[in-house]
Amino acid sequence: MEISIARLYADGQARFAALFRSLDADQLQTSVPACPEWTVRDVLSHVAGITDDVANGRIAGAGTDPWTASQVERNRELPVDELLARWDDQTGPVSELFEQFEQVRPVIDVETHRQDVRAALGLPAERDTPIVHLAATALVESLEHPVRVELGHDVLASPTAPDAGVEPIMLRGATAFDVMRSRLGRRSREQVLAYDWSADPKDIVDVWFSFGPATEDIAEP
């Protein structure tokens, strides 16, 4: 059964908010390797800030570095409990807007940063959530290079594969989590090159990263 965008965002937000509520002051100040120069507390300012910006119509420049930086700065001094309460209150109506406009990016963003925070705190990654699978599908389908990804019995393919007789490169033995984390810059170039590709991946690796790549290898518990 297909899960709605609104439900996915609400579920992702609830899991992330519960994690934040479990953290002490020292954990909130932990640096997040996947988000250089950010602490765990800064990540909260960002993800809760997106919902607040959408709720208040501050969407000019959405997704840009200045837009993101303003969220971190604006929410930095707000008490954590107050910030989480506001995020909870805004999630319902804002998730319905994401549904209305078919915006999956905020859903993927909240899950990506939840995994970033878990990794920073040494907590085991949660590799098999519905959002992880949604993200893997969306991120493969957005590639402009002929590629197919074997995920167990399923195969994901970019829209250009096969293209005019060009044989798509195949990624074998990967998981949806591998795809999401690497495409979003949470793996280094060397890590992606080391995946099990059906051919030389030098061409695909140049377009594989939607963000990044990471400057150093990233291993997650």
Sequence-ordered SSE layout with sheet pairings:
Elements: H1 5-21, H2 25-28, H3 40-55, H4 65-75, H5 80-100, H6 105-120, H7 130-141, E1 147-151, E2 154-157, E3 169-172, H8 176-183, H9 189-193, E4 196-197, H10 202-208
Parallel strand pairs: 1-3
Antiparallel strand pairs: 1-2, 3-4
Helix pairs in contact: 1-5, 1-6, 3-4, 3-5, 3-6, 6-7, 7-8
Radius of gyration: 18 Å
Q: What can be said about the biggest beta sheet?
A: 4 strands, mixed
Catalogue the unreliable spans. Answer: none
Q: What is the strand content?
A: 5-15%
List the total number of helices: 10
Compute the separation of the termini in Å: 30 Å
Which secondary-structure class do the elements indicate? Answer: alpha+beta
The helix content, as a percent range, equals 40-55%
Chain-averaged pLDDT: 95
Question: Can you tell me the number of structural domains?
Answer: 2
Q: What's the count of strands?
A: 4
CA-based shape: globular
- The topology string of helices and strands comes to HHHHHHHEEEHHEH
Largest beta sheet: strand ordering: 2-1-3-4
Compact summary:
The chain is α+β, with helices and mostly antiparallel strands. It has helices at 5-21, 25-28, 40-55, 65-75, 80-100, 105-120, 130-141, 176-183, 189-193, 202-208; strands spanning 147-151, 154-157, 169-172, 196-197. Helix 1 (5-21) runs antiparallel to helix 5 (80-100), helix 6 (105-120) packs across helix 7 and helix 7 packs across helix 8.
